[in-house]
Structures are given as C-alpha cells and as structure tokens.
Amino acid sequence: MIRTLLLTVSLALGAGTARATCPPAPAQPGADQAAAWAARAPDRGPLWRISRDGHSSYLFGSLHVGKADWAYPGPALRQAWGETEVLAVELDPADVGPALAAMPPPEPLPAPLARRMEAQAAAACLPPAALARFPVMLQISTLMLFESRRDGFDAGFGQDLMLLAWAKRDGRPVQSLESLEEQLAALEPTAAELPIVVDGSLKQLQKGQVRAPLRKMADAWARADMKTLADYPRWCACVDTPDERAWFKRVNDDRNVQLAERIGQLHGAGQRLLVAVGALHMSGPQALPTLLARQGFTVEAVHLAK
C-alpha cells in the first residue's frame, strides 16, 4: 500500500547486521542469469488498456516486493511500455527521500508499544532506533518487508523499481499521482486508531503471521487473480477490527478517487501513460478500473486471470 515510501525507507536502511537469524539479504543474479530471466519472463500482474480522447494509456497493478526473477517485464508489459511515453506512479522516489529527511520525528509511541517495536526491529537485525525517525506505519511496513525476505521477497525486485529504472534509462518523464503529504495523511492512523492498528500489526509480526498472507498476495498478484486480491481483507488477518477496517478503507479505497482524477487529467492532457499503482487499488467498489470507466474511459483487460 505504501510502495514508494516503503521502498525508500528499506533501501536507506539496507540489510542490517548479518547474523544467522537475520532476514537474509537478497542475492543478486549474475549477468547470464539476468539475461535468461529477461528473455523468458512471463506476464505477471494485472494490466488494462484504458482509452479515451482518441488515444490509449495503460493501467498496471503493481506489487511493492518481488522475487529476483520477477524484476523483468513480460510481453504485455513490454508492449505497454513501447506504446506509452510517460510513467505515472503514486510517488516518484526522487521526491521522497529529501522530504522524509526534512520532516520532524513523529510523536513517540506509548512505552509498551515502543518496546515491542524495538524488539521487532532487533529481530530484523536493524540498528537500535533506526526506524524511529519515520512515521509509525512506515516503521511497521518496513518490519514486514524485512520479514518477507525470509521467503525470498525484496523491494528491490518489485515491478515499480524496474519501471522507474527503465524510465531513467530511457529519459522518460515520471509523474507522481500524489504528494508526500497526501499519502502520509492517508497512511497515518488517527490518535484513536493508532494503538489498535499498531498493536494488531505487531501481533502479526510476533506470531509469525505476516509471511503466509504475503505469499498468498504475491501468488495472486503474479497470476493477475483479482478475485483473490479483492478478498484480501477477508484472509489477511489484518483488517479485523472496526479501527483496522477504517484505516484500510482510508489508505486503499478512499485514495482511489483522487488517483483516478489525476490519471484522467494527465491522459486528458494528451499524455500516453503507463500507470503503475498498487494492485489492491484495482479491487473493491472504488476500484481504479471502475472509477476510470465512470470517467468515460474504455477499459480493456490485457492480462487478467480467467
């Protein structure tokens, strides 16, 4: 849900201190292996063509982590890249790092939650207080990202990073669909929600309940299985209380209205876009394909599970 912010934080922190129990740092492929993966990469992730005003753009549902061989586009995504001229993402990482560094530190968590957060950071082999300067939900999500390394996932292999690298290579413009302030305003729980949302997330980490839902999400994403992704709140064990449901709705569904409006404005200005937004934004009553269809777009599935 917080792909660009999470990627920025995780890359800044690095792999932590190497110990046998640490989440393993990702192994980078050699040149021959990378070439082989690139040559036979299948299509992964949901992809739509959206058409209006006499031209077409593409909408791609991305995942904020991936496996080493996932960092290469399949035929449909390569075609979408060739037919577009601007990459649109939730946030351009080039804008995020300096803005985060300039932000004042967040309000400290209540002491019991702070101790539990520090214990989870130690389990991830992160230096003491390494996360304290970041907003609380970035702290939680970074811990979950490091835990996902135990299953071979890493932000460095996500499709977002691959597309941004392509944009830099080709000199392609990158458009942000949100500002840092807008995304943080959505991500941070209210004062009433915070202890409940943080407590639930820490319990998942402490009980080892993070990895199975992420594996299920990643598998569904790779197959472009929108039915399973749409059911995420039912099986993730992370949207169980009223406060968690309110936070999830604000982070996912409510942001889609503004994301859709921004996509429509950029496309309406004549830009042929490849839009890469988190795959969960493609599901539910406020799904981006649905909102764009309401704006008059013709929305055609290019890669979706049957």
Automatic annotation (TrEMBL):
Keyword annotations for this protein, in alphabetical order, are: Signal
Q: Does the keyword Signal apply?
A: yes
Q: Does the keyword Signal apply?
A: yes
Signal peptide, first to last residue: 1-20
Cross-referenced InterPro entries, in alphabetical order?
TraB/PrgY/GumN_fam, YbaP-like
Q: Which Pfam families match?
A: TraB_PrgY_gumN (PF01963)
> What name does the UniProt record give this protein?
TraB/GumN family protein
List the top taxonomic levels of the source.
Answer: Bacteria, Pseudomonadati, Pseudomonadota, Betaproteobacteria, Burkholderiales
